[in-house]
Known about the structure:
It is built from 4 helices and 14 strands. It is globular. By secondary structure, it is an alpha+beta fold. The protein has helices at residues 2-17, 45-57, 61-66, 121-143, and strands spanning 69-74, 78-83, 88-93, 98-103, 108-113, 116-117, 153-162, 168-176, 186-192, 197-204, 214-217, 221-224, 227-230, 239-245. α1 (2-17) packs across α2 (45-57). The protein starts with a helix and ends in a 17-residue tail after the last strand. The strands form 3 sheets. It has a 7-stranded antiparallel β-sheet, covered by helices on one side. Strands 7-8-9-10-11 form a 5-stranded antiparallel β-sheet, with helices on one face. Strands 12-13 form a two-stranded antiparallel sheet. The protein folds into 2 domains: 2-63 and 150-226, no CATH class; 66-142 and 241-247.
Amino acid sequence: xxxxxxxxxxxxxxxxxxxxxxxxxxxxxxxxxxxxxxxxxxxxxxxxxxxxxxxxxxxxxxxxxxxxxxxxxxxxxxxxxxxxxxxxxxxxxxxxxxxxxxxxxxxxxxxxxxxxxxxxxxxxxxxxxxxxxxxxxxxxxxxxxxxxxxxxxxxxxxxxxxxxxxxxxxxxxxxxxxxxxxxxxxxxxxxxxxxxxxxxxxxxxxxxxxxxxxxxxxxxxxxxxxxxxxxxxxxxxxxxxxxxxxxxxxxxxxxxxxxxxx
Length: 262
C-alpha cells in the first residue's frame, strides 16, 4: 500500500495548507496539468491525485504527450490507426471493405463504401462524423486512464472497494458534460493501490443508475515504447493487437490501399 500511503500523506499536507472551503482547483499539479475544460472546481482533490498517480504509473505525461502513432483492432470488428499528433485516423472494416480516412481535428476526410468512394458532400460529412464517433468510442477503450482529466470530465473519489477478482481498489467516478457521444454515461474506475494502475472499470448507461450496466477488467498491461497499455484482456473484449510506431508513411492516412505496417 505504498502508493496509497504516499497519496494520503500528500492529501494531509494539502489539507494542512488549505483554508476551510477551498476547492479542488487549489491543488497545483505540475507533472500532469488538466486539459482545458476539465471540471477542476467540482472534482475531488484525492480523485485528482489518484488520476495523476495513474498517469505516472502508465509512463508519465511526457510519454503520453509524445505518443505519435498507435494501431489496434477493436472487438475483432475493425482496425484503427491513429496519428495522435495530427488527429489523422484510419478505420478499416474488413467485413464490408469500408474505409474511413479522416482528421478528427479538422473533420476533413474521404470514405470508401460498397466498392466506391463517397463523393456527395452531405453523405461524406455524415460518414466523417460517424468515423469520429467510432474513434471516440474505440480510443476510449484503449487509452481511458490517460484521459481522467480531459475536457468535460468531473472526477469524484468514491473510496475503497473490492474488484470482482477480490483485490482491493481505490475507486474514482467519472461524469461528463458536453463531450463525447454519450455524455449521460458514467464510469467508475478501480485503481490497484499497489501499482496505481486501473484494473477494472464499470459502465453506467445513465449517470443516475444505482447499479452498473456492465463491469469489465482492464488488465494484461504491456509496455509500448514507454507507455503501459491494456489490451488482449482476460475477458477477450476491447482492443487487441496493439502496436505503437514512431514513424508511418502518410499514405496510411491518404490511400485506401493500406500498406503493411512495420
